[in-house]
Amino acid sequence: MNTPSAVAFDETRAEAFANRLVGTLNEAALALMTSLGHRTALFDVLSAAGDVTSKELADRAGLSERYVREWLGVMVTAGVAEYAAAPKTYRLPAEHAAFLTRAASPNNIAVTSQFIGVSAAVEEEMLARFKDGAGTHYHNYCRFHAVMAEDSAQTVVAALTDQILPLVPGLAARLENGINVADVGCGGGRAMLALAREFPASTFTGFDLCGDAFAETEATARRLNLSNLTFRQQDLSQVTSLGTFDLVTAFDAVHDQKDPQGLLHLVSNSMAEGGVFLMQDIGGSRDLETNKNNPFAPLLYTISLMHCTPISIGQGGPGLGTMWGVETAHEYLEIAGFGQVETHRLPHDPINAYFVARH
């Protein structure tokens, strides 16, 4: 039997791994700078400007040239932007802009890059949680609700009419005629806002633990005089029914609840006869061996570790984590009383699965 000290040290393997780590450091730096490029709108401005100097870019973006020039240094050396030494101009290729600008939505990966900074901001908090096993709370996370709302705007809001609602045959027609709709764990509430504007005959209610999450959208609804949209701050683990709804939705919300199974029972208890539950959640597996083939797995496990798992534990929940898996989702839906469950994958959203559940 070989002991660790007796196993031959593979120099080639070691060097390959060291090179990979160097690449990891560079890619991690690029992820953070990608987030900055998105938040400052530098990608949008650079894409529209064509060949531009650092000063011209900074002036157009309303930013400091010195910092913009340093950011451009990252983009050039990382192969994101192109650079001409004479006369020192920069440009963003159209093929790269297709994944980095707001016009590229829902393919704007720069939006998702913001989760790296959100996760890094709680590193000290998580170091303590590794030691005491306790959880975190939403106030520990800077910008989480804002980033989540922007990410949801790409994967959910932009695709609601053309891709998500058609998963339920006849649903759009029912919404046009007028039905009662609830969104549990609504977060920023942008999905309900979009539906309320498109289907004025239906009524929409968003429920979330954090009132600050939907405050901006609630104010927007008031400005637009949308009488068919309301929001309620509610600990969903404290009630047994929300009312009676023809359609209940949950977009990337169930797995990090205090009581995911209890939430699904609550949804089941709040369904009208013939009602439908439409749930979007992470489309990974609960089995690590399966997730080894998932290209998003390292990112999803990181978000799970830094947010989803500790947020659930902090509420006294089980900490299912992001990778609770489609297998667990099906089991929980069945236990909650949903006898008919369909699972769908949509081409615009490679990370999530979409579940259509009925009694």
A few lines on this structure:
With 359 residues, the protein is α/β, with parallel strands linked by helices. Helix content is 48%, strand content 16%.
What structural category do the secondary elements indicate? alpha/beta
Spatial order of the strands forming the largest sheet: 5-4-3-6-7-9-8
Helix amount: 40-55%
**Ends distance:** 56 Å
Work out the count of structural domains: 2
Summed over residues and divided by their number, the pLDDT gives a mean of 95
Computed over alpha carbons, the radius of gyration is: 23 Å
Q: What string gives the helices and strands in order?
A: HHHHEEHHHHHHEHEHEEHEHHHEE
Give the full name of the CATH homologous superfamily of the largest domain. Vaccinia Virus protein VP39
Indicate the CATH topology of the largest domain: Rossmann fold
User: Mind summarizing the main beta sheet?
Assistant: 7 strands, mixed
Q: Give a count of the beta strands, DSSP E runs of length 2 or more.
A: 9
Q: Provide a count of the helices.
A: 16
Strand content: 15-25%
Shape field: globular
**Low-confidence stretches at least 5 residues in length (pLDDT < 50)?**
none
CATH architectural label of the largest domain: 3-Layer(aba) Sandwich
Domain S-adenosylmethionine-dependent methyltransferase Rv2258c-like winged HTH: 28-102
Domain Methyltransferase: 176-283
GO molecular function, one term: methyltransferase activity
Protein name: Class I SAM-dependent methyltransferase
